[in-house]
Amino acid sequence: MIPVLVFDIETIPDVAGLRVLNNYPASMSDAEVAAAAFTARREKSGTEFLQHHLHRVAAISCVFRDNEGFRVRSLGTLEDQEPKLVYDFFRIIDKYTPQLVSWNGGGFDLPVLHYRAMVNGVTASRYWEMGDEDRDFKWNNYLSRYHTRHLDLMDLLALYTGRANAPLDDLAKLCGFPGKLGVDGSQVWTLFQEGRLNEIRDYCETDVVNTYLVYCRFQLMRGHMTQADYQEEVSLVRSTLAALDGSHWKEYLAAW
Question: Which residues contact 110 (CB under 8 A, 6 or more apart)?
Answer without folding.
Answer: 102, 150
